[in-house]
Amino acid sequence: MSLVLFGPPGAGKGTQSDLMLGKTKMMHMSTGNLFRDAIKNKTPLGVEAQSYVDAGKLVPDSVVIGLVREFLEKNKVVDFIFDGFPRTMAQAEALENQIKEVGAQPIAKALFLEVPHNVLMERLGGRRVCKNCGAVYHAKLSPPKKEGVCDKCGGEVYQRKDDAPDAIETRLEAYEKSTAPLKEYYQKKGLFISIDGVGGSTDVFERIRPFLKN
Ligand code: AMP
């Protein structure tokens, strides 16, 4: 079984994916993480994607779809959690074809994390991330014990460029325009499941857990 996890920026897709991975044998595929790694390593893909990611814009479909194809072909896995992909209708259609081509399991559920705008703004504005291990903190609600230093690995805790106010606005606009229509797309396919994404991460995960069974 493969799953799509989607929702607005700041809905908690990355956090919930991590919790899901502890409970399933599915492989995590996060296009956001792939782009951040490529940017960190200054690969040609990273160079191409950086200006989009930093500004909070969607990377063009052709680039994202090519990246996912490569990932699926390289990782001979059948069960995936797709986190942050698809984000557009063209990506959703491409994903279905690619899954067939590589023989992965079809998407059984599209879990949508529902979070109101004011909560998203608070989460995104305060979000801090470890540059080394990716651990997520919040400047006010859950800061690291020592400012700027990751509790888990001692790495540098920083604010992502795309968590700056202008970029947050751009990301929310891109979500409304391009990603929100996927709700209807998956509803029509009978795969859409809405999850209340408000509250602590373990509370939200308890709402997801029943859907992890086949
Ligand atoms: P995320 O960590 O999922 O919020 O992604 C961070 C950034 O990576 C996004 O704001 C986009 O610039 C880019 N990105 C990630 N996934 C996609 C996608 N499926 N389509 C287009 N751009 C993406």
Describe what this molecule looks like in 3D:
The N and C termini lie close together (7 Å). The chain has 214 residues and is an alpha/beta fold. The protein is globular. The protein contains 9 helices and 8 strands. A 5-stranded parallel sheet has the order 2-3-1-4-8, with helices on both faces. It has a 3-stranded antiparallel sheet with strand order 6-5-7. The model has no long low-confidence stretch (mean pLDDT 94). The protein has one domain: 3-Layer(aba) Sandwich (Rossmann fold), CATH 3.40.50. Bound molecules: adenosine monophosphate. Adenosine monophosphate (AMP) binds next to α2 and α3. The site of adenosine monophosphate (AMP) has 17 residues, from α2 and α3.
Q: What tags apply to this protein structure?
A:
single chain; 214 residues; alpha/beta; Rossmann fold; three-stranded antiparallel sheet; 9 helices; globular; binds adenosine monophosphate
Shape descriptor reads globular
CATH-level-4 superfamily name = P-loop containing nucleotide triphosphate hydrolases
The CATH C-level class name: Alpha Beta
Going across the major beta sheet, what is the strand order?
2-3-1-4-8
Please state the second-level CATH architecture. Answer: 3-Layer(aba) Sandwich
Question: Which strand-content bin applies to the residues?
Answer: 15-25%
How many helices?
A: 9
Task: Please state the CA-atom Rg, rounded to the nearest Å.
Answer: 17 Å
- Give the mean pLDDT: 94
By helix and strand content, what is the structural category? alpha/beta
Total count of strands: 8
Ligands bound here? adenosine monophosphate
